[in-house]
């Protein structure tokens, strides 16, 4: 994963490396000086996981091509699971003439088809496209060109639920987890909180996640206009996500376009009342048997109404949420995920 960001995809790359490390020798290849490399204390040495980093300026880079090729040869790599998209153009040239079992893992909804001659070329040596939900499976079919030997697979990411003690508090406590970026839902969530303020309902709202630098100014300008900004805690990036889930009652997640949010699944597993828009993978989660609230896509009025209803009926909703953990144990188990990956590793 050569991404410079600090969101779900990057965390998923680290998690998958750790999950597969009991079954294979794992090399993590990351971009020098960015998030994944900075988190090496969390995974380097874990079941002998090794880290290599590459410095490059653009997604099509001679340094990326030659350095990746050198590292792959040095470590005798046979399988590559790639998290991302843009750097694949360099990896295509890095892997030329090598027998690499290339697996591209898709966790983000893409909007523009990539079926021109150049993308057909760089995707031609992909052996497997792995999607983490049915929505993304269909998205990949529409967006991504398949080579003559390319196959597709659906592999849900496993969710590890850790026991924790739910904290008592005096007012409804909300949480959103995710990179603070345009379309990730934080702005709509904050607007929805206006209904609590207008109804004289005291509340606390944790926004957990780091900023996309290009969006930080826009978000803070909006945040500073809110008359209830004192009720909002900008936590930033933290490894103590579970502790914030333990403090919370409602997971408010009106994202415009998720692949499949691990944070949303973790909130369901922790017994929170979850609210999302009716888009992307959320209808699929409903079909799998999860209990949560889903409102019309980008409808702030409906979002406000559902938030008010949830905040004023928290105790009544707790009974309805007990089955969510059972669904996670059946559909999102570590055994199921690792078994499916081991089937396609050579």
Rg, rounded, reads 21 Å
Task: Give the overall silhouette.
Answer: globular
Ends: how far apart? 20 Å
Unreliable residue runs? none
> What's the arrangement of strands in the largest beta sheet?
9-8-7-10-11-12
- Biggest sheet descriptor: 6 strands, parallel
Question: Which percent band covers the strand fraction?
Answer: 15-25%
Based on secondary structure, the structural category is: alpha/beta
Number of strands: 12
Order of helices and strands: HEHEHEHEHEHEEHHEHEHEHEHEHHHH
Number of discrete helical segments: 16
Percent range for helical residues?
A: 25-40%
The average pLDDT score comes to: 95
Short précis:
This protein is 39% helix and 16% strand. The protein has helices at residues 8-20, 35-38, 62-75, 88-94, 117-122, 134-143, 186-192, 194-198, 213-223, 241-246, 262-269, 282-288, 300-311, 314-318, 324-331, 334-344; strands at 27-31, 50-54, 79-83, 101-106, 128-131, 151-154, 173-177, 204-208, 232-236, 250-253, 273-277, 293-295.
Question: Could you explain the architecture of this structure?
Answer:
By secondary structure, this protein is an alpha/beta fold. The protein is built from 16 helices and twelve strands. It has helices at residues 8-20, 35-38, 62-75, 88-94, 117-122, 134-143, 186-192, 194-198, 213-223, 241-246, 262-269, 282-288, 300-311, 314-318, 324-331, 334-344, and strands at residues 27-31, 50-54, 79-83, 101-106, 128-131, 151-154, 173-177, 204-208, 232-236, 250-253, 273-277, 293-295. The strands form three sheets. It has a six-stranded parallel sheet with strand order 9-8-7-10-11-12, sandwiched between helices. Helix 7 packs across helix 13. The longest helix is centred in the first third of the chain and has 14 residues, at 62-75. It is globular and about 65 Å long. The two termini are 20 Å apart.
